[in-house]
Amino acid sequence: MAKLLHGKKGDPLLRVHSVTYTADAKPILFDTSYYRADKYSFKSTLTRDTH
User: Could you state, in order of their start, the residue ranges of all structural domains in the chain?
Assistant: First the structure.
């Protein structure tokens, strides 16, 4: 992974798992992405439907 991201072995990574859903709540895309921790920062907003 370090070589693919042009980093060094042992450098920290950010791993992000995500799922994309259709309008009727069916999952259509599952993704795992890796980012160099020294190049990215993340802010996430989580929402939840009320039932």
Answer: 1-42
